[in-house]
Write a structure and sequence with these properties.
mainly alpha
């Protein structure tokens, strides 16, 4: 399970870095910040114990909420 956490953490980190570097328009900064937060939530080294009292289930739910909320930031800001 830790290996899956590492893989997801690196995917989200590199996706956030690529988004910030290659698409600096619109809501891409907000999306890259969300990806950095997902990378932080998925990192097994930080969450080995419960430093803030946050369990694995709570981290998974926050990550899913961030993923499902991402289309809101893609709407045009008319």
């Amino acid at each position: 399970m830790a290996m899956v956490g590492w893989i997801l953490s690196f995917i989200a980190l590199f996706a956030g870095l690529a988004l910030r570097q290659d698409m600096p328009i619109g809501g891409s900064v907000t999306l890259s910040n969300m990806l950095f937060l997902v990378a932080l939530l998925a990192c097994p080294m930080i969450w080995r114990e419960k430093p803030l009292g946050i369990s694995r289930g709570q981290r998974i739910m926050v990550a899913l909420a961030l993923v499902f909320a991402s289309p809101i930031f893609l709407f045009p800001a008319a």
